[in-house]
Amino acid sequence: MRRYFDSNDLLCVDLKKYTIFKDLSDTEARDVEDRITLTRLKKGSVVYREGCNIGGIYIVVSGILKIYKTGFEGKDQIIRFAKVGDPIGYRSVITTEPACTSAEALTEASVCYVPADIILNLFKKNNKFAQTLLSIICRELGDANKSILNLAQKTVRERLAQVLLTLLETFEMDEEKRLRIAMTREDLANMVGTATESVIRLLSEFKTDKLIELQGRYIKLIDIPLLMKVAGIR
């Protein structure tokens, strides 16, 4: 385990506790730890931008990041969220192409950067590592296919319900049944793929229908079965 100090406190990075690195040998883990760079991020900090050459992957050590694409009119579309242990930027390493998304800290966060040559060397020499990375890629592709289907076939009301359930699956609820993530109305709209005004109106409708309660940027889920019905989940 590598320990990093800054002016505030101590931060530990134990690579083998993260799914992508769980099958590394002790020697491989030490080699990776010798090359990683740790960065603390303030809320709103951009890790990398779409079209940039990243040259490595990032692992989320703390906090939450949003991964998004920017449309032709400058409107962001949130693709997914990355939380502790999640790797981001690996597509650019595998394809040696510029990043196809941007990554931004949704909360205060920390990430460790692993250079591409380390990842590619592990991919070639460690079959279990390669299989784990491929499974991560396939899972993300599957999620992307579901999102495309939702955008094409579901109404905005159904998509908002689906997004709330996705946030529940990703972040779970606290003891007060609130989603463990504070979302701006704009970010919710970017996930749903609609205007912010539409999300504000629909959230008010969901509240009236006693599906949810609104507590600032936090959303309390009151009736999950009915929310699933609204989302078209049988």
Give an account of the 3D structure.
With 234 residues, this protein is of the alpha+beta class. 41% of the residues lie in helices and 24% in strands. The chain has eight helices and twelve strands. Strands 3-10-5-8 form a four-stranded antiparallel beta sheet. Strands 4-9-6-7 form a four-stranded antiparallel beta sheet. A two-stranded antiparallel sheet has the order 1-2. Helix 3 crosses helix 4 and helix 6 crosses helix 7. The protein is elongated, with a radius of gyration of 19 Å. The N and C termini lie far apart (45 Å). 30% of the residues are buried.
Whole-number mean pLDDT = 89
- Biggest sheet: strand arrangement: 3-10-5-8
Structural class: alpha+beta
Shape: elongated
Oligomer: single chain
What is the string of SSEs from the N terminus onward?
EEHEEEEEEHEEHHHHHEEH
Q: How much beta, percentage-wise?
A: 15-25%
> How many beta-strand elements?
12
Question: Helical element count?
Answer: 8
Helix content: 40-55%
- Low-pLDDT stretches are 3-10
N- to C-terminal separation?
45 Å
Radius of gyration: 19 Å
Largest sheet: 4 strands, antiparallel
